[in-house]
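Handover notes (outgoing to incoming on-call)

Open items:
1. Acetate kinase: sequence verified, structure written out, both below. Nothing else pending on this one.
2. Nothing else urgent.
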Amino acid sequence: MNGSRVLVLNSGSSSVKYQLLDMADGSRPASGIVERIGEGPVTDHAAALKQVADELAARGLGLDSPELAAVGHRVVHGGTRFTEPTLITDEVVGEIEKLIPLAPLHNPANVTGIKVARSLRPDLPQVAVFDTAFHATIPEAAARYAIDVETADRWGVRRYGFHGTSHAYVSRATAALLGKEPAEVNTIVLHLGNGASASAVRDGRCVETSMGLTPLEGLVMGTRSGDIDPAAIFHLSRVGGMSTDEIDTLLNKRSGLAGLCGDNDMREIGRRMAEGDPAAQLAFDIYIHRLRKYVGAYTAVLGRVDAIAFTAGVGENSAAVREAAMRGLTAFGIELDTVRNALRSATARLISAQSSRVAVAVVPTDEELEIASQTFALVSA
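Acetate kinase structure tokens:
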């Protein structure tokens, strides 16, 4: 292998995001997105990938470039079968297809992107990097739900976790920010975007995470409810007369911040709060309450917390969310520096007070770099 570049593809249901990274010098020669697949001239994923190839070729970075070492594909669900980056073969594609019932909204698009990319460059190594893989180290006591074991095993009902590439990247970047190796640091990672998840990382290995069988469990999110009594589903069915699909739509698309106040953009919620809007204030308070519960729980899980890292759209940009989430936690050794917290920066930085026993950091996530790094390491081995 002579090339040093990795093309990272994230094939969604209606879009394909791409980024070309050079692992030799850290540069990113190209990036982009093809949206609205199935509408207009971009009829399907084959057309979208051809457009990506054409855009790269127009910049002299075509898929036939000898500098291209591999393609790295984001795959949402690896189940218990895939717990590390995996070189893609026909057998691997078949196994990922078998996991579609666990991720019906994401894995089909991921598989389609893989098949099309392989057809364009069948000679090029292609690697699947799984969102669930980083969480495969969670102990059984945390991964198991307390339901009948035979039923759970038959249908794959357990906690898998998601956003794994982000949690992996941020936990390592946080250790680097502290001048330590990942194996020396216990970190709570708070990935707060429209989708949100928390993880407890001990000595560089994930031991707990908030998302479960699906990305619905855990924190309050933009449109997802997060934790809810499962009997609420039976109640909505039996008393409310709602179908399974209607409840699915309610919990995934009409809940969370949007369900509470009509907005899932934290900037808009902040604006409404400043104007005295009680619905926006309540939505914010519920969001923060759930977040603080997880910080407390993961402090207990880890025993010793060295750092708390905020990342993703809300985590990186909302000083108000960070301040509210960390307020009053001095008993846990957590003290925020309000001046540091208010500063905006695109680089990883500490926002904790000098006297804080626990470092609090803002660490911009870089899932594309994580996928590229895992892909390049595998094909270079």
